Amino acid sequence: MNKLLLALGVSALSPLALAKPVIATSIKPVSMIVAAIAGDKAEIQQIVSSTASPHDFAMRPSDLKKILKADTVVWVGESLERFLEKPLENADKEKSSIEWLALDGMALHNFAEEHHHGEDEAEEEHDDHDHEGHDDHDHEEHDDHDHEGHEGHEGHHHDGVDPHVWLSPDNARVLAKAVTARLVSLDSANTKYYKANLASFEKGLNAKDAEIRKALNKVNKVPYIVFHDGYSYFEQHYGLNHVGEITVSPERKPGAKKVAEIRHEIEEHNVQCVFSEPQFSPAIVKTLLEGSDVKTAPLDPLGSKVKMGTNAYFSFLDSLSGQFLSCLG
Hints:
It comes from Marinomonas rhizomae. This protein is α/β, with parallel strands linked by helices.
C-alpha cells in the first residue's frame, strides 16, 4: 500500500519536477547564445523568425503569448527591437528580462556621423521598398499585427549606439554569463550543468575567435561595401576594410543621389565586393553593379540558415567569416 501511495505521489509531482524554464528570445543570434548555455534543460521560444529582420518586424498575437508564458525574455534592446518595449511593459516582464545592451561589461560602438549622409534621399523611394526579401512577413495576417511595433520603428535611425552587438565575440561572452546566472536562479537543480556549458562556450569561443582572426587577416586590406551599416562590431574586432554602405537603415531604399554616391565610392576606393543581405531584396545591389566587374555575395547578419544547437553561435561566426572570405579572397 505504501509503495502504491509513493508511486502516486511521484506521478503527481513529475510534471513540476520535469518543468523546464521557458526563455523567450528576440532574434536568432540571441537564441544561439541562450541555447549554448541552456542545452536541453530549458525551452527557447524565438519571437522574430529566423528569416525575418528585426528592423521592420511587427508583433502578432502568437508572439505576445511567447512573452506572457516566458520565465525570462532575452532581447537586444530598444534601439533594435522597439516593437518589444510595450509588450514587455504590458506583460510586466521588464524587470525579469535580460536586455543585452544594458548589461555590465558591454563594449558598445556608436554609429559614426559620416554614415548619416544619404538618409534624406533614402526617403525618396521609401514607399517603393521591395519586400520580396522578407520571406517570413505574412502579409495576409498583417492587419492583425500590433502596429505599435511599426509605428515605433518610424523613429528608428542609425545614430547613437549600434545595437548589432551579437557580431562581437566579446559581447557574446557577456550575454552568456548573464544567461547562465538567470538560468541558475530559475533552475538551481541544474546549476552545475549551466556553469559547465558556460565554461565550454567560453573555451570554444576563444578557439573560434583565434581561428577566424587568422583567416580574415589575409583579406583585411580588401575594400568592400555592405548593404547596411550594421557590421561594425565584427569589422572592428577583425580589422576589416569597410569603405561604405548602400543604406544606413535596411528598411529604406536608397534614392538616385545615394546610388550615384555609392558608384563613385566603388570607383574611388577600388571596391572588390558589394554585399547584399538575404533578409532584403538584392535588386538594388544588382542595379549598382550593372556593367562592372565588382563581385557580390550575400552577407547574413542573422545566421538565418545556421542550424540551432549548442554550437550554433560558433557556426554563425564561421558562416559570416566564410561569406566575407568568399567575396574578398
